[in-house]
Amino acid sequence: MGFWDVLLFNIAAVLGPRRSAAAAHAGTSSVSLWIPAALLFSVPTAFVVTELMKPSTGKELNLS
Question: What's the pTM?
Answer without folding.
Answer: 0.53
